[in-house]
Specification:
It is built from twelve helices and twelve strands. A seven-stranded antiparallel beta sheet has the order 2-1-7-3-4-5-6, sandwiched between helices. The protein is globular, with a radius of gyration of 24 Å. It is of the alpha+beta class. The protein folds into two domains: 35-71 and 177-333, D-amino Acid Aminotransferase, Chain A, domain 1 (2-Layer Sandwich), CATH 3.30.470; 79-172, no CATH class. It starts with a helix and ends with a helix. A hairpin with a 4-residue loop joins strand 5 (139-144) and strand 6. 36% of the residues are buried.
Length: 375
């Protein structure tokens, strides 16, 4: 069991949160701090040498991402237009600056489903999936993936205006899932995440992969909202058991609760093509050594949805061995990453201004001691 001192060290020297301490079972075995990498250590320190920030803009901006990777010949969703208050337009060049423009477009275009996603989206926040456009004499109704039915104007409260400082939504085709995936998820959202690494020699390799499977009442499959996450064997495409964030991985799901389909032991169809698509994307993305690629498996094959630099490492570590134990982090260290080792020296190296704050605190303590009355 974790003592108070060990808990303080897990927080202060490895930067684990309370949830991570429970999720990775560090509260039961303090030695596991040497196996797992905290998200704080990953995002603030470890990933810094793995990519130039100026290159990540291509991935962060979903509008740019679609344009660039489509031009590179990779399969990506079709963009119908960009909803933006100043210069937004549909793909034919007509104005797309408001929801009124969207309503007018839906009246003339034979589109039966679509997706709206923020230009600078992250973790599926603000994403709206429309499964069916119902046109009638009284107007247009939109049936959402979570079962709600709204008007075009009813989309407004669901949208995040100025998300991450940039106003704008991408109007995109709605991708339907491969029958095997849809049957597994019970009709809910599902997709794959593959982490790739560019070695010192310049070759791109897959590092790890998971499948995220949601439920029929969800708009998207994210770890934060309680979707199931299963590890995928890189060589065979075989799934492991499902875990969720809601119970911090305490419950292993061998079958999907909604569909009843077996998760553990199931083999993903076209798995080799899914991995190869992620590798093709990695080879064409300069300046970034480590990227997490989101891929959907559709009836027509795998489609590249997006790439992420600041991905949630919890989804890859929650199944057992952490990145510090399975050799993944060591591959990052070869590219210059400073891995946490539980030492004060590591904390000092990676905490800007820490030395000055320690000196000021010591100085204040010294002054307080000098002011104490003598006996």
């Amino acid at each position: 069991m974790l003592t108070r001192r060990q808990e303080r060290e897990a927080r202060s020297r490895h930067w684990f949160t309370s949830d991570e301490i429970e999720m990775y079972r560090i509260n039961l075995d303090p030695d596991r701090t040497r196996d797992f990498l905290s998200f704080e250590a990953w995002s603030r320190v470890v990933r810094r040498p793995l990519g130039e920030n100026r290159w990540r803009d291509v991935l962060d901006n979903k509008w740019t991402f679609g344009k660039v990777f489509r031009d590179l010949g990779l399969p990506v969703p079709r963009d119908y237009g960009l909803l933006e208050p100043i210069s937004g337009s549909f793909e034919d060049g007509t104005t797309f600056r408001s929801l009124d423009d969207l309503a007018a477009w839906l009246r003339v275009e034979a589109v039966s489903s679509f997706v709206l996603k923020p230009v600078l989206g992250w973790a599926s926040k603000g994403v709206i999936v429309v499964d069916e456009v119902e046109r009638g004499p009284d107007g247009t109704l939109l049936r959402l993936a979570d079962g709600r039915v709204v008007t075009v104007e009813g989309l407004r409260p669901l949208m995040m205006e100025g998300f991450r400082g940039v106003p704008g939504y991408i109007l995109q085709e709605r991708l339907w899932l491969h029958r095997w995936v849809s049957d597994l998820s019970g009709g809910g959202p599902a997709g794959f995440r593959i982490v790739t690494l560019r070695t010192k020699a310049g070759a791109c390799e897959p590092v790890c992969a998971v499948m995220r499977v949601g439920f029929p009442d969800q708009m998207s499959e994210t770890f934060a909202t309680g979707s199931l996450v299963m590890p995928v064997d890189l060589a065979t495409g075989e799934l492991g058991p499902g875990l969720t964030s809601k119970d911090l991985g305490a419950t292993r799901y061998e079958h999907h609760p909604a569909s009843g389909r077996a998760l553990e032991g199931a083999v993903v169809p076209d798995w080799s093509a899914i991995v190869q698509l992620a590798l093709r994307a990695a080879e064409r993305q300069p300046g970034l050594a480590c990227v997490c690629w989101d891929v959907l498996l559709t009836p027509g094959g795998p489609v590249l949805l997006e790439g992420n630099v600041g991905f949630q490492i919890q989804t890859f570590q929650i199944h057992g061995r952490g990145f510090l134990a399975d050799g993944t982090a060591q591959r990052w260290a070869e590219l210059g990453s400073d891995l946490p080792d539980g030492s004060r020296a590591w904390v000092r190296r990676n905490t800007p201004g820490l030395a000055k704050r320690v000196v000021r605190a010591a100085s204040r303590a010294s002054r307080r001691v000098r002011r104490l009355p003598s006996r």
